[in-house]
Amino acid sequence: MAFEYVKKDTPLDRMSPLVKLLLMCMALILVVQCTKIEYISILLIWILFASLWWLVGKVELSSLGFILKLLSMLFVFLFVVQGLTYRFGDTTVILQLFNWPLFDDHGNVMVNYGEVTVGGMMYGLLVMLRVIAVVTVVPIFTMTSPMIKINGALAKIHIPQKIIFMFITAMRFVPLVQESMDAIIEAQKTRGFDIDSANMYQKFRRAYVPIITPLLLLMFRRAMDLEVAINARAFGAREDRTNVEDISFKVRDYLGIIIIVGVFSLMMYLMYFETTSITWRYLTIIVSTILTIASGFIITTGLDVILQNLNQFLLGLPVLNWIGGFLNQNLLLGYGAIAGLLLILFIIYKLIRKATKKKKRVKR
Amino acid sequence: MIENPTVKVDNVTFTYERGPLALQEVSFEVKKGEILGILGANGAGKTTLCFHLNGIIPTVYTGIEKGSISLCGLDPWEAPIIQLASKTSMVLQDPESQFTTTNVASELFFGPANLAVDRDEILRRAAWAAKVCGIDGLEERKPKELSGGQKQRVALAAGLTMLPEVLILDEPTSQLDPIGTTEVFDVIMQLANTESMTIIITSHKTDEIARLASKVLVLSEGRIKGIGTPKEIFSQTELLESVGVNPPAVTMFSAKMAKKFPGFQERYDRIGGIPLTINESYSLLKDLLDEGFLQLEWKEPPATPPVSDKIVLEAENVTFVYPARIPVTALRDVNLTIHQGEIVAIVGQNGSGKTTLVKHFLGLLEATQGVTKVEGEDVSELTTGSIAKSISLILQNPDYQLFCISVQKEIEFGLKNLGLPEDEIARRVEQSLKEVDLEVLRDIFPFRLSFGDRRKVAAAAGIAMDPEVLILDEPTTAQDYRGRHVLCQIATRMQKKGKTIVMISHDMDLVAQYADRLIVMAEGRILADGPKREVFGMHEVMEKAFLKPPQITQLSQKLESYGIKKNLVTVDEMVACFKGGGA
């Protein structure tokens, strides 16, 4: 599983889980307050800060990739919905998907819900970054803290043992459910039940019954057995349960708290007291510098002429000009048709990949 | 000094709430430092009895109880379970379900930490328990990184860290290979002798119980059928068989010999009772042969039936690597052909690659290198669903596959997946229900059946698919003597109809009785592949794979100088080789 603890002996490993819990709480508090597009810059700084923890804790990047892959559909959805509905900020239209104007009393177009605007895209980006800012700190907690330490640390702040045990059991059951599910899928496959070759509709309609039913029954049985197991070993016998793990606060824990609180306060200062929104200005400067350098490079090498010609040529083609027309030519610096072509090529590539995936044949 | 018994059970009768009568008028005593072995078929009340001795009944499960129990002076119905838990510790049947934490070290700390034992003392106990149980060095492992056998050792160690006065073990070695089983039982013996711990143990492995128990109790349908020393109990072979317990093979052999040769019984009675171990049996036979009371006449055991030329399963240079953070090579260059109509047993330790190999034939895993073929067709090109027509797998744990509302529907599920017509489905359901003898239970919700019956349902579902190859994965797990034979007998009947049977097991007695050919695996490699009698003779291979030949085979190897020419595997084969002497 992607989020399980693996012993790595890094400073983060030895740090108290409470510090990492604090980091998670701070991330949540910060994100709740980030509601304006300008705060994208603050979120970026926070994500940069979180990724430093990843480096120190030697947490695998692959687990981040795993989360992002899980969330990728959500991100696309956010971009489209926000792009179509958010009507503040820059209202330049990037793409007109369809035409659905709303008129005010005088018959003027108030808003067109078929248009994706720059402001909407920016807002989509903000929401996406908010999700990422929280999600990136979760593995820092789960992947660098052994359960026994979490247990000790929570007991230290006087959380009742029963609640801690519930929490730990829940964490432990996640991989267990995953494992059991894999075993059940394999078992049903050997009975000629081919879930992989069923289509989406079939999957939702009936395919999960033979998998979910045994899983639920199995988990109920597991829960009963667990009750026997913990009772057999005197769980809850004494209030003053021994903590085997040393969970006293060390220098690195205090240092961690100071850093977290420091960075968080800085973010708060930038958000509420820094009236010139300096971070946002720097961000726009950086982005526009990159763009200028890139376009400068294209112009000096003479690529722009070739690209322009190609664009014109593409616009001349029957189907492409129809798609190219959807995209805002001005915003894309006149390369709308090329952008459209790339998009189409990407979709075709995906479809081909899907179609050429090794097909299995039926046994004679 | 007369001591009070540590455990005293007096006339206990127990009925589960909304359930069956589980125990009837059970009385016995166990003294400090004694080892009590409890024998009985599945459902005889062994686990219920164990639950009585550590307060699980009445704390977790309740029911109507008559009679009284005294445990180190405490009454489980009066004293809270907490108090009991410091006196008695129980290791449960299924090591999987009793893992309460996330790694081995914290598992060992869990019990004593609950009792608020001093931190240094906990660490000391954990180190000791890990060493005694042979799991030191695994402290950082997670449950899923342990083999079944290792999990069982962890469970035992976790029970030990509570330093109980009474240790209750419910099937502590059901998932261990033969060598591992002997090791664990040695630990138990040592605990009783050096720490004078009182130990109560249930097991189907009677040869080990016979070796170490000071007292044996036989349960059947909740009643005590016999209690006494191992020799007293195991000499009553007919009683044991009638309640579904198999005596150790050498004991069985002696009992059969006594029937065949009048006077044999007097001879072993003179030396203190029926032989329970190979050495006892050997020295008795040696004396009798030397005296001339018995004579050995070599009788050729039935020859291995010839195999057909048709190859059903084939593996060519198969290597498989489990993709993980640290990739694990599970199969290394495996070559194998299995012909139609064979009964093959794949044996080896947990984690030796047996199941991984079988999964390749089922199309559940794809070889990293090499080719696997089913009936000449490359598995990697086939859909898993269509392979199911040719191969059925009967799982170790039927709960992974049962989900329907009735037994009949359960069997129909696979057939419907194959897209068979209605009348064909009905016909096959009838036939397979008859095959496993579950016709009366066809409308019952499978989950309400006993474990043994659930396995039968799974088997019926497999048979109904009418496969060319039937694979039994560990037919012995959590099964009593009768249960494990039922599955194998079904398999044998299938083989008579021309099907191919592959068994995965580390129960050597079972393998010896049913299989013709053995494939020994260790660390992902095939160490030996040949007729069973030859393979049992390869001492180095067996040792490397943590296996022991069955008792009868070991005995026949010892008797080689007297004219036993081949390894014998069953009691009857052995008995047939003896005839009365002139004297």
* Global outline of chain B: globular
Averaged pLDDT of chain A: 83
Helix content, binned percent of chain B: 25-40%
Count of DSSP H/I helices of chain B: 24
Briefly say what this structure is.
The complex is a heterodimer of chains A (364) and B (583). Chain A has 364 residues and is mainly alpha-helical.
Set down the secondary structure blueprint.
The complex is a heterodimer of chains A (364) and B (583).
Chain A: H1 11-14, H2 17-33, H3 40-57, H4 61-85, E1 93-96, E2 101-103, E3 109-112, E4 115-117, H5 118-135, H6 138-142, H7 147-156, H8 161-189, H9 200-207, H10 209-232, H11 251-272, H12 278-300, H13 303-316, H14 318-326, H15 336-356
Antiparallel strand pairs in A: 1-4, 2-3
Chain B: E1 7-16, E2 21-30, E3 35-39, H1 46-53, H2 56-59, E4 63-71, H3 81-87, E5 88-91, H4 104-114, H5 119-132, H6 148-160, E6 166-170, H7 178-194, E7 198-202, H8 206-212, E8 215-220, E9 223-228, H9 230-234, H10 237-242, H11 249-260, H12 264-270, H13 278-291, E10 294-296, E11 311-322, E12 328-339, E13 343-348, H14 354-362, E14 369-374, E15 377-378, H15 384-387, E16 391-394, H16 407-417, H17 422-436, H18 451-464, E17 469-473, H19 481-496, E18 500-505, H20 508-514, E19 517-522, E20 525-531, H21 532-536, H22 539-544, H23 551-558, H24 571-576, E21 578-580
Parallel strand pairs in B: 3-7, 3-8, 5-6, 6-7, 13-18, 13-19, 16-17, 17-18
Antiparallel strand pairs in B: 1-2, 1-4, 8-9, 10-21, 11-12, 11-14, 14-15, 19-20
Helix pairs in contact in B: 4-5, 4-6, 5-6, 13-23, 16-17, 16-18, 17-18
Walk me through this protein's architecture.
The complex is a heterodimer of chains A (364) and B (583). Chain A has 364 residues and is mainly α. Chain A folds into three domains: 182 residues, no CATH class; 77 residues, no CATH class; 81 residues, no CATH class. In chain A, 68% of the residues lie in helices and 4% in strands. Chain A is built from 15 helices and four strands. In chain A, the strands form two sheets. In chain A, strands 1-4 form a two-stranded antiparallel ribbon. Chain A has a two-stranded antiparallel sheet with strand order 2-3. Chain A is globular. The two termini of chain A are 37 Å apart. With 583 residues, chain B is α/β, with parallel strands linked by helices. Chain B has three domains: 236 residues, Rossmann fold, CATH 3.40.50.300; 79 residues, no CATH class; 237 residues, 3-Layer(aba) Sandwich (Rossmann fold). Chain B has a six-stranded mixed beta sheet with strand order 5-6-7-3-8-9, with helices on both faces. Chain B has a six-stranded mixed beta sheet with strand order 16-17-18-13-19-20, with helices on both faces. In chain B, helix 19 links the parallel strand 17 and strand 18. Chain B is globular. The mean pLDDT of chain B is 89. The interface between A and B is large, with 61 and 78 residues.
